[in-house]
Every structure is written in structure tokens, then in C-alpha cells.
Write a structure and sequence with these properties.
Strand content: 15-25%
Helix content: 40-55%
CATH class of the largest domain: Alpha Beta
Largest sheet: 5 strands, antiparallel
Order of helices and strands: HHHHEEEEEEHEEHEE
Structural class: alpha+beta
Number of helices: 6
Distance between the termini: 135 Å
CATH architecture of the largest domain: 2-Layer Sandwich
Strand order of the largest sheet: 4-3-2-1-5
Radius of gyration: 36 Å
CATH topology of the largest domain: Alpha-Beta Plaits
Length: 321
Amino acid sequence: MPNLFEPPFTDLHAFYDRHIGPIVVAVVVGFVAIRVSRVFVRGIVKALMDREAAEGPGQLTAVEMTKRIATIELLATSVIQFFVVAIVGLWVLQTAAGLDIGPAIAGLGIAGVALGFGAQSLVKDYLNGALILIENQFSKGDVVRIAGVSGTVEDFSLRRTTLRDLDGTVHTVPNGAIIVASNLTRIWARINLDVTVAYGTDIDRASEAVDSVGRDLAGEGAWSQVFLEAPRVERVESLGEYGVTIKILGTVRAEDRWNAAGELRKRLLAAFHANGIEIPRPQRVVITREPDGRATTPADDLGSVADGRPPTEPVEEEPPA
């Protein structure tokens, strides 16, 4: 029977101890580290998403939540896996081939710095995209205002956001250019209207007309599901050049803010006409010339206090020389 403690078996044992054993251990440790990191990341992401669903302002469906969790998990585990594989690979090179990994690490550092300077905008895009996704600033289907443009989010990735505005124009915005993201369709929104009525109008009467329109609209059929708070007159906003401006506020579901505001304006016009409440308008002065060159203003264009329009002073021009 061969003696395992004599050459060549002792040489094989020594080779295994110096090379094969450390490599196997490094690979096993790296594999375990990757598996554990996936479980660890999944637990952290799940806890964050559960907390956001309970306390945050977003309202995500189960499908959207699953997609967000999967995307964030993939991003985090990919980064961890890259570092683990790089470390294990360098360790294997040092152990198996006897290479000095110090210069390699230094070279990788220099290459990383050069790549960072060359692709810093790209890295910024991906990092900002990851933060937008993690914080749920917006998602597909939301109407947002970012980087000076606004529209519906048609597509979103870690590098860029694609919007389509009301004219149908498609805007592609790098995520690194997004400093402030304004989400116009997150849960609820305000109807915020400034309506000007002519001087001499009974403000209490005008306010009652507005409040009545708001109550009727908020309680009518399908609109009752849109309005969370009926529109009403909040205050007298200002005393302007042409009349008194009143502030109207109401609360609606965010995605219906534009349709609800348009319907309210239409009904306010009809209510003001029915109650004899006039919305002021700029006056136009028509100047005619007599045969002798004298400029005159017809009386019909001066306005009158009786019809609610402020009188306009006639403008006289010097006759041509």
C-alpha cells in the first residue's frame, strides 16, 4: 500500500495547501457572500417598501410594488456581486499564479478614476435614477414636471425618463438632469382659480353664486367621485385695475384636476350670466378724424357706469402739422 506521507503524495498535499485549498475556500466564501447578500438586500428592500406603503404618500398596486422591489434588488445585488467577484478573482490570481495584486489594484484604481471622470454624467444618471425609483418620486403614467419640461411619463429606466407632452412631443430627459421632480398626479390636487368681477358687484352675492356652483358640481353624479372637497370662495385675493379678484379653492383627485377645473369654469360663466355678475374686460377706444383733422372718440366706446364698465377717458391726438 502506498505511503501517503512520502513523495509524490506529500508534494500533492503541499500544492493543495498552497494553491487549490485557498482557491476553493475563496470561491465558496464568495458564493456564500453573494447568496447571503441577496437575502439581506431582499429583507431590507421589503422592509422599506412596507414602511413606505404604510406611511408614504404613494399608492402603488401589488404589481407595481413587486416590480419596484425586483428592480431595486437587482440593482443592489449586481453591485455587491461585482465587488465580490472582483475581490475573489484577484485573490485567485495571487494564490494560483503568485501574482502581486498590488499593482493590479493600483491600476484598477487609476482606471476607475479615469473612467469616473469620463463617464461621470452617466454614473450620475444611473445613481439619480436609482434614487428616483427607491423614493418613488414618480412612475409610468404620472404627469410630472422635470428639467423644464412637463408631460406624461411614458417610460422610465435608471438612465433616462421619457415624457410625452400635451402636443404629443416626446422628451427624453437624463435622470442626472432632474434636480426637482414635480408630480402633478399624486393622490389629490387643488383647484386654484382666481376670478375677477367688476367693481360695483355685490361680493357676497358673487361668493354665494360660486359656492352654490361648487356644491352642485361636487354632489352631481360622476363628479361626486372626483371632488374630495367642494370648490368655494376662500377670500378676496386682490383689488386690481379692472375689478375685484376672488380666490376659489377646492380639492379633487389628482388625475382629474384639469377636467374638473374646466367644468367649474364653464358653470361659473353660466352662473354669473344668470345672476347678472359681470367679468370685466379691457376697454377699446376707437378714434376717428373729422374732415378738419380733429380727433374724436365716439360716445358708444367710452363705457358707462350703468353697464358696469368703468368709463374710459377720450384720447385726443394733435392734428398733423
